[in-house]
Amino acid sequence: MTDQPSGAGAPRRFLFLDASSRVDGNTAQLARLAAESSLPEGAEQQWLRLDDHPLPPFQDLRHTGDGRYPEPVGHERTLLEATLAATDLVLVSPLYWYTMPTSAKLYLDYWSAWFRVPGVDFRDGMRGGTLWDVTVLAGTEEHVQPLIGTLKLTAEYMGMRWGGALIGNGTRPGDVLRDERALIAAKSFFAG
User: Fold this and answer.
1) What angle do CA 136, 85, 9 make, to 5 degrees?
2) Which residues, listed in sequence order, are joined to residue 130 by a DSSP beta bridge?
3) Domain extents for the chain?
């Protein structure tokens, strides 16, 4: 597996995981604007749509047999390797029913398996990285608090830094591009 870079001179590698069910939806548009205008100099970026890398339903094997999970293959392997290679993990997640879309939750459920894959050392590989969120919702910012709370606790549990949440508002495709407050925040989001 790929180790995260260490030291001040190593480039930061941002993994953007788009959990939207709509291609190039409001949340992806806001995330791309933030990436274009505020990623640190020399930062690398990789974009993956979770719907293009579907995972089967998660099965909890912790209390069966030896509790180990098989070596990841296919889309699971792709997501695991991309996750471990990133210094910064950006969940691009529209708000669905006060939380993240199913594909994002399923991806996080797989972290439980990755803890138990022999030779992966998933938690150590994630420790010291940064978890970010970009979310667009139709409503008020208080509605996004359950999602933000979930991700903050995830970062804390993993020994990661919480980078913050970039929040936009919009319903129909392109609406977020009229949210002046979100557009202004996007221009410095990853710089802070």
Assistant:
1) 100
2) 88, 161
3) 13-191
Is the domain defined by 13-191 classed in CATH 3.40.50.360? yes
Residue 95 burial (10 A CB sphere; 0-12, 13-18, 19+): buried
Prediction pTM value: 0.93
20 forms bridges with which residues in the sheet? none
CA distance 164 to 146: 14
How do residues 108-136 score in pLDDT, each as one tens digit? 999 999 999 999 999 999 999 999 999 99
Rounded to the nearest 10 degrees, what angle do helices 102-114 and 74-85 cross at?
80
Average pLDDT, the chain: 93
pLDDT digits (tens, 9 = 90+) for 91-108: 999 999 999 999 999 999
Query: What pLDDT, on a 0 to 100 scale, did the predictor assign at position 3?
Result: 46
